[in-house]
Specification:
CATH topology: Rossmann fold
Mean pLDDT: 84
Shape: globular
Strand content: 15-25%
Largest sheet: 8 strands, mixed
CATH architecture: 3-Layer(aba) Sandwich
CATH class: Alpha Beta
Oligomer: single chain
Order of helices and strands: HEEEHEEEHEHEHEHEH
Low-confidence stretches: 13-52
Structural class: alpha/beta
Number of domains: 1
Strand order of the largest sheet: 1-2-4-3-7-8-9-10
């Protein structure tokens, strides 16, 4: 007949059995973790880096009660002052909606500023009204607000791209030809516009790019306007937005190429 182990002896033996087991489990847990790099470890320059998150868009109030403007900061830190694209939305569109549709990867080190038109539409959005001088005040106030916020980090006094879609393209052309300003390039999308080369040159515009979708009714007029400007000695071109109607939907590749062409000089 087997003798029962006294309870007191069993209690005394537990540490001798359990402690080695716990130690082996602890060593296994530590060894299974990846080793931490030393604090002074060299960084491999060829190792892939995570893409830094893009800075959030923000809304800036404009001086003089002229409304507000949506601002999209550049994704890439500029070398020196960042250039600016001012984008005017279409009739009864929203400035924020327009700015948010711009492919940020195509902007490089540029800011995009989208001022809101002054007159509200019944169904939402806003439209441009009050004449060219009023629109010009809103555009310049947007640049002033950007300058006040970012200071030396942004170039607002020269080489600004003035862009617009639909009604925004129409008023952008009017602003650019009404008086000298910081706008050296025009990007006009989906509008029957035909700015005069003599007025563009007189007010500092150096290059004009016109664009529309293949099914946009404004396409024939914009194609013709680009030819007229080019014959008059103003560097201009028409670029199709592809199989699209009357819409603002530039792809990343399209916008990068368009901004690259506008930034060229001497060709």
């Amino acid at each position: 007949m087997r003798r029962a182990i006294p309870t007191r002896a069993l209690v005394r033996a537990l540490p001798l059995v359990c402690l080695p087991l716990l130690a082996s489990r602890a060593s296994f847990a530590v060894e299974s973790r990846p080793p931490l790099p030393p604090e002074n470890a060299a960084v491999d320059p060829l190792a892939p880096e995570a893409t830094p998150p893009a800075a959030a868009a923000l809304d800036l109030p404009l001086a003089g009660g002229l409304g507000s403007a949506r601002v999209v900061p550049p994704r890439v830190a500029p070398e020196g002052r960042a250039r600016v694209v001012v984008l005017l939305h279409g009739m009864c569109d929203e400035a924020a909606w327009m700015c948010d549709r711009v492919p940020r990867e195509a902007l490089g080190d540029r800011f995009v500023v989208c001022p809101r038109a002054p007159r509200a539409c019944r169904g939402g959005g806003a439209l441009w009204s009050g004449g060219t001088e009023r629109t010009r005040e809103i555009v310049l106030a947007s640049l002033e607000a950007l300058d006040a916020r970012f200071g030396d980090g942004v170039e607002t006094r020269r080489q600004v791209v003035l862009a617009g879609f639909s009604q925004g393209a129409y008023v952008a052309a009017a602003v650019a030809t009404s008086a000298p300003g910081p706008f050296s390039e025009l990007l006009l999308v989906g509008s029957r516009v035909s700015p005069a080369a003599v007025l563009l040159r007189a007010n500092g515009v150096e290059r004009v790019l016109l664009a529309a979708g293949e099914f946009d009714g404004a396409r024939p007029d914009m194609t013709r306007a680009a030819r007229v400007l080019d014959r008059a000695g103003m560097p201009a071109r028409f670029v199709s937005l592809g199989r699209a109607g009357h819409s603002f939907a530039p792809s990343e590749a399209w916008l990068r190429e368009a901004l690259g062409w506008l930034a060229r000089r001497g060709d």
